[in-house]
Amino acid sequence: MSEPESETVSPEASCAAEQRMLQEVIQSDTEVHEDHEDAKSTHEIKVDVCTATDMLLQEENIADSTKDQRDQDDVNQQGRESNQTLSSSDVGSSTATVKILLMPERHMITVAFTIGLTILDLKKYFSLELRVPSDIIQITLDEKSVDDDQTLMDIGVQPHGMIQFEMSSLDPENYLMRPIKPQQEYNMPDVITVRVQTDTDLYQDVVVEIERATRRKAFLGGYCHKVTKAEYHHAAVQTMPKKRPDRGVEMYSRDTQTVELKNQDQQCSKNASTQMTKIGCYVSNMEDKLITPGTYITAGEYHNKRLRAVITLQSYVRRWLAKCFTNSLRQAKEQHLAWLENEKRRKKEEKEQQIRDEYHRRMNPESKADFDLLYNALKKWRIEEEERISVTLSGAERKAALCSLLEQETQFISSIERHRMAAGTRNQDKAIQAFLNKCAEPKKWRAFDGKVTEMDTQFTLRSKELRDLYSSITQTQFTKDERLDVLLTLKHTVKEHSCKLTQDIVDLIDREVDLLMRGVKKCNLEGLRKRIATLFLQYIKTPAFNPQVSRFMQVPRDPANLKKNIYLCRGCNEYQSSTDFALKTNASAVGLCRRCMDLDNEARRREDFSLYKNILRCLRDSEAEYGPEAKITYLLQEQDLRYLVDVLWGAQSALSGWKDLHDLLLVRWEKHLDWSPWNCILLTKDEATAHLKLEDIEKAYDVVVIRNVKQKHALARKYFSQIPAIAECLHDTEIQPAALSNLLVSKPITKATKQNH
Length: 757
Known about the structure:
disordered C terminus; single chain; six-stranded mixed β-sheet; three-stranded antiparallel β-sheet; Ubiquitin-like_domsf; IQUB; 17 strands
């Protein structure tokens, strides 16, 4: 249904109608925001109007008091003046979206204003809207106050743009900024009856069905009568446009694909005329300008000028690209030099740390490897001294010097053994403490969510009590009274069970208490206290007194099974279990037990296998990263690895000849094959890292290097194929002719071969 031009007789009626429309829009927008944004602290109320002047005219009819009426007339008059001023410019009459954030409740109000209005006009508008005096309203932008005489255009608001202000009250106790509360929604009936005058005295009642509009009625402008002040609005189509019928074929148009919607105010076309001087009309020529044509430029000159400009731009761009390239090269060089410096510093620090660790191991030996290192150093020192004596002395002096050297060596051995005894005592104390801590640990299990749960049982609590009591018994810093208290607690603890062991402990406790009361010195009580600690440890290890210890004690073997795995040691002439013998991979018979081999090594060979153990450990760790199927690395022992490193590879890097075993590693020669003695190479750590990154070995290394490596692989295959355990992993027992094409290996020609040829 179309609507003709409607006449608004009075501004009050028009403003009242627009006020109802405004309230409906406010209420609908507010309900949408309340339904969808209840969780947000900032509520936005959107009000769409054409100009701020229209809103000021609407608010004139709301106020009841005379003072408010005068303020509204002033705003109305200023709005008309601003309209008259802004009508001369398209930009000034353009609108912009203004968002007001009410502080401190952070409610949002959205209003459309013309960008020619000042901040004072905004304050007056919101003072009427919020029922707050305009002089206590403070408007800020980016936490800075905005002057009242500034317009939105002065602040930097573009036509059809958007800006957000923060509005707060200078007197929040009396005047608080509250959001707009929309009025109740007006429900229009679905059917109305309209009386239409068809003739002078004839009227007809027409039933009109109201169609609910799904879009807002567009404001298309209008006119205002200068005398009667009546407003005439342009008509708008209320019905939706008809939908085009579907032809069944998809139609594409370049216009629809590249369409760009843009709203911009335009002025109507204006006719202009020019007046010339004639008879009866004089036109001054004081402001006329004389325009003379410039030099004519041909097409060739224009194109040459453009070509020179392009060449200039290209030269500058190429210079910029060259500078960027040189800067990147310079930065790469600086980074490489810094990396080299860091690597040099790192290697130096690692070497210093290695020397400090080795010095600490020699000065404070704790493990068997530390004592092997000491005996190996003693052997080297003795060899150097013998060479020096043999070179410098002769005859009786040489014999006397050798006897003195033997005495010094004996003293060094005695000192090393004293360190061994002290280390054994410390290690024994640590082992006892670790055993007690293990018995006193609570039961643990991991739940499905990853959390670890701990639970103490009556047995773990008993073990924890005995552990704490044992720690108190072995303390030597207690005073006399504290020691008596500990002994009394121990006596009550062991008296819970009656047996020969507990009776001995009680007798020893009474004896120490008697000696303490007599004032005996602590140094004279050390033996007695050690006996008490030893018997109490035996008490702790008894499952009848400490049930938890049964889970960690070794179960005695069945005597019937001992005959099966017992062998005679040819060194100590004692029968030992098979686990007490260290067998080599190529051994065919049982020889010496571990204890006799260690004693023989310390007395004669004095070899240190710690470096080879480190190389073997690194090899096993690297192969475990490739996959758990590696077998040969776990079959090799320190003696086999020593033969592979010292004999085959000469204890030096195959590329650089570096001889420090601390920096050498055994890695794969061909990384796509499993590690084996015939598929390995001895390199430094840096060389090994670079070697594993190679894709084609034939292109990376020289022919001489490849020939030497393959020759060592052939020797390793021949040596390790004699070991039964490793021979099973050797699939190809014979070397392929293509693999040995570069090796200097000669083979005799048999007679059968000659006959065939």
